[in-house]
Design goal:
This protein is an alpha/beta fold. The chain has 13 helices and 15 strands. It has one domain: Rossmann fold, CATH 3.40.50. Strands 3-2-1-4-5-8-12 form a 7-stranded parallel sheet. Strands 9, 11, 13 and 15 form a 4-stranded mixed sheet that branches. Helix 1 links the parallel strand 1 and strand 2. Helix 8 packs parallel to helix 10 and helix 8 crosses helix 12.
């Protein structure tokens, strides 16, 4: 089996590559990345708290620890010729598409970056889909993309797994949930979903849409084997997801800072559980359907999340406090989001981390990198 993994250099992509290598020893894992995430974070005046080694060093360490079947191709997914060459040579049975510009705040810095985010993300996905089609691999390739729970917006009813029942004038139908994105980044993923639905409807392509929640975590079972195998950990305003950023604030002696009231529920999942479910999705059989999984294990309010992190920090002897500031984002500040995730939990199997245990893990593992976080603590808040 050949598995094409996009975004291998990223926070999710690298640990996914290692777990794929462990669980699919006979497969060839072809990792693709243009290494842009490193540059984006640097331009925003920050760094990964945990050192990220060059790809050649990562691959060397991977081989030393028995992850023998990972190779790397550097290139831009927005370049159709590059994608066509990859697909035609490797003819992957599975494409696991993790690559994207994934930051909503980054996509809102200016019009150029909004345009870049949508072009980069949507062009990359279209290139992959069309290359599968043009290489006559429709019935041989399972296309899996990590989109985002953000495509649902913030409805007042329970969020379904991908589809919604609609009644009108005495008739009813089941339709893909409409895109309700709240940022230029999330809209790029809503557009991706529309393209995935279209590729399935027109060509019968087997597609799995993993709608990823907000992640937290620093490590997986594989990345802890060697410091050279570590994945990145961003904590700045633009690329640091909320739980990870709050943990970094606590370690730096900076108040855990909530935008607005913090009474909106957000879906969450640990890095370990996310990566394991990615690998489990690769095992799904080709069925010529469009399947959606809400890749989330819990919903929790931002305020509740901050309290869990404050408690985890104090358990480690770190004193911190919580503060509220004016919310720079356009969003509901009070929203009791509920989600349906039964299909996803069946795909995941045993859950490794809940919010409390996950935040303790993050705090403890970040202690050795406390000084790096302190050095860049000015990047916590938008200026």
């Amino acid at each position: 089996m050949n598995i094409l993994l996009t975004g291998i250099d990223g926070y999710i992509g690298w640990p996914t590559a290692l777990k794929l290598s462990k669980e699919f020893k006979e497969a060839k894992i072809i990792g693709v990345d243009n290494l842009a995430r490193r540059k984006w974070v640097q331009k925003c005046g920050s760094v990964s708290a945990i050192p990220v080694f060059p790809m050649e060093t990562r691959l060397e360490a991977a081989r030393e620890h028995g992850f023998q079947n990972i190779c790397f191709a550097e290139g831009d997914l927005a370049d159709k010729l590059f994608i066509d060459q990859l697909i035609s040579v490797f003819k992957p049975e599975v494409i696991l598409h993790c690559a994207a510009q994934p930051s909503a705040p980054y996509s809102h810095i200016n019009g150029h970056l909004a345009n870049y985010t949508q072009f980069n993300n949507n062009q990359s996905t279209r290139n992959l889909l069309w290359s599968v089609k043009e290489n006559n691999l429709i019935d041989k390739t399972h296309f899996i993309e990590m989109t985002t729970m953000g495509v649902y917006g913030a409805p007042e009813f329970e969020i379904p797994e991908g589809f919604i029942d609609v009644k009108r004038k005495g008739k009813k139908d089941t339709l893909p949930y409409p895109g309700m994105a709240g940022s230029w980044y999330h809209m790029s993923k809503s557009n991706d979903v529309n393209n995935l639905v279209l590729a399935n409807r027109m060509w019968g392509m087997s597609i799995t849409d993993l709608r990823t929640a907000i992640l937290y975590g620093t490590e997986t079972e594989e990345t802890v084997l060697d410091s050279r195998l570590s994945t990145r950990f961003d904590f700045d305003f633009y690329f640091g997801v909320v739980g990870n950023r709050f943990c970094a604030m606590a370690l730096a002696g900076f108040p855990i800072t909530i935008y607005g009231k913090g009474e909106q529920n957000k879906p969450q999942i640990s890095l370990e559980d996310c990566v394991q479910s990615n690998v489990n999705a690769v095992r799904l059989e080709i069925n010529n359907k469009f399947n959606v999984y809400n890749q989330a294990t819990a919903t929790v309010s931002i305020k509740e999340l901050s309290v869990a992190i404050k408690n985890a920090a104090e358990d480690c002897g770190i004193k911190t406090k919580i503060q509220h500031i004016e919310n720079p984002r356009v969003e509901k500040e009070e929203h009791k989001m509920t989600i349906s995730n039964e299909k996803f939990m069946s795909l995941l199997g045993p859950q490794k981390y809940d919010i409390e245990s996950g935040m303790r893990q993050v705090i403890k593992s970040l202690v050795p990198f406390k000084e790096t976080i302190k050095t860049y603590k000015d990047s916590f808040i938008s200026v």
